[in-house]
# Entry
Amino acid sequence: MSVLRILSAEDVRRAVTMPMAIDTVADAFVQLSAGQATVPLRAHLQQSAHESHTFVMPAVLEASGGLGLKVVSVFPHNAARHGLPAIHALVILLDAATGQPAAALDGTLLTALRTGAASGAATRALARADSRVLAIIGAGAQAPHQVEAVCAVRPIERVLIVNRGRERAERLAALLHARGMAPAVEIVASATEALARADIVCCATSSPVPVFADADVRPGTHINGVGSFTPRMVEVPPETVGRAHVVVDQQAAAWAEAGDLQYARDLGLLDEARTVELGAVISGMAPGRAGDNQITFFKSVGNAVQDVSVAQLALRQAERLGLGVEVTL
# Structure
């Protein structure tokens, strides 16, 4: 018999703060780049009738004793057709010594949390220390966590929101105000206007075409690209990718799945050998920012080490705080 602890989204929210998640994800990336994690390329299932993507993402983290997997689905028409969120996920943790099921966690919030934490870890490693203005492009489920993570690692004074629809942008602005995530929040009409002032840019869209122009990027800007996760999605202009210092979450996964990188490579603007992993940058094994005028670009397609490491943290905190429900299997 084994005991399984079930953690809801609210349990995860209460158990894990963003600064805790950033530190945990940074350590997981270091393990990944050091060869101390096993992460197969995720299985990808598509359903043409729903234009959906379902991913199965397993990982083993040797140094921290993590073993588990995430199942995550992206159904873009859920809101219109069913009144449901587009993303649903479940994370399963196993005891790394025995294989017994240890926990089942709501993975939808955890996915947004760990994705924000990755941008936080990358921003801490790559953005200029004096960065004050953040532009967030896209006002969906990922956006508040991107803002929270960047504000946790840099002294952000103003957040500029760019989104196709005004209503969603206003909802994001209200949420950021209500949670006290940023001193000042402003909705701007275009990416051009936002990038003219931004020190850091977070792209969290599913766009098939670049969401800003290369000419709009100021010297010294740091960019986080977390929205696109297939070869058909491109958020960042290939010209920007080609002249930036490009850092990825994992080489194999990023080059297999990131349209931003593949598009720039196919145009002859980027060579795979020029990209480095975030874990190697954090550990000092690969170069970070070379100067105040350099453009840096972190491209993440999502990695199971993020999910397993944050789930481990949530489980430890839940046990300490008495959160969740225990079920005997």
